[in-house]
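User: Predict Multidrug effflux MFS transporter's structure from this.
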Amino acid sequence: MTNQRYFFLILILGALTALGPFSIDMYLPGFPAIAQDLHTSVSQVALSLSSFFIGISAGQLLYGPLLDRFGRKKPLYFGLALYVVASLSCLAVHRIETLIALRFIQAIGSCSAAVASVAMVRDLFPVKENAKVFALLMLVLSVSPLLAPTLGGYVTAAYGWQAVFLALGVLGGLLLLASFLWLPNGYTPDTTLSLRPRPILTNFWTVLREPQFATYALTGAVSFSGLFAYVSGSPLVFMDLYHVEGKVYGWIFAFLSIGLIGASQVNSLLLRRYQSEQIVLVALSCQLLTTVVLLGLTSAGVLGLGGMVALLFVFLSCLGFTSPNTSALSLAPFTRHAGSAAALMGALQMGAGALASLGVSLFDARSAVPMVALMAGASLLALLLLLVGRQRVTHLVAAAPGVGGAMH
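Assistant:
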């Protein structure tokens, strides 16, 4: 594979991976405007974020078997087309309940891109390069938190929040066209796989019984749910509690994302000397320490805007180390069931994220404590899952150069 083709392939896969996050981040600055136009509260608008997470979680379980049975591209086309229709339908909503429902459908469409892109990493690249490729995908993915909220803030201010969904519909259409024209086929459909519920559940159970998958997929999902708590709670925390404008919030959100982006790229360098499982353990420990400090200062009411931004930056940096390594370690043992494994991993991640988002939405409190408490709880539980689960992994399948052998 030439360097130019390698770069172009990473760009398309990264853009597909970023579609869901872009759909989340871009409309966040518009929460107050949506609440005003639909005669509801910001907390109720946040439920449209929770429904999006639920849709992604459920949709990934749907697309996993379809990707294995029919190949990667046909289910991807269907999902992207559904995404475009749902996005454009959001232009005409007049009730918050309608927006919540359409966001669920939009998520069902977008998660086809997420599952297909992850499965294609396993199809198109050697296993030993997967952690590096996932880190590169996170670099493309990082465009979302850098551009989406800032762009969303300006679009909302200039044209109204409905224009955000118009832009998302156009983005989905462009990705559909790019996937059709330039995305290669790297997987032969397995026509022996049944789409009946029982065989599908059996495949998922087979994947979940793999100790390495169970350990790192669950650890990664719970750890990453802290990010969803932050995303759901940050509009209230920054715009209501710290009284920053929507445009300023977009810039803060973009700045904080630099931590996630930078760490994911430093991770590629660390993989030359350290094993993925070593990086995960250290990063999770730092993540827990950061959230405990953040929770203590927030509860005491002594944390200003600068301190909040600084500690959230460290928290997101820890996630930048954890996420690509847990993803690579989760998928490394699979070839035949890579699509189902990618789907189940994504479903676990988004399911945990939906619960965290819903937890933040349920607390219509004038405090950052609910958001921070959920972040700290997720970090603690993830570390416990890692410490307990790794004892069951008797042989670790390589996920990066230098990774292998038994885990003790």
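Residues 400-408 have pLDDT under 50 and may be disordered.
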